[in-house]
Amino acid sequence: MNALLANSGETLMQAADIAAKTKSQLKAKQTSGVQQFLSKFATIFTPLIPGFIAAGLLLGIATLIGTVMHLPADAQGDAGRRS
User: Fold this and answer.
1) How far is residue 20 from each of residues 7, 23, 27, 68, 69, measured CA to CA in Å?
2) Do 73 and 79 form a contact (C-beta atoms < 8 A)?
3) What predicted TM-score, i.e. pTM, was given to this entire model?
């Protein structure tokens, strides 16, 4: 049991070394030109997404208000007033 406990520290260090090497290998693969371009593209356009959403909502609300305000008189219940 003592031998297992004594070796566990070495195994943890080996596991940490393996994890660090694997992580560095994955990062090396992700630094291709395409990956860098997509990263820059995402960095530029990600902050704009809420603005696009807000503009779409405002346009939808403006269209809805415009549609409601331009209803014919018959649709608003004024048909009985005409003689």
Assistant:
1) 20, 5, 11, 63, 65
2) yes
3) 0.44
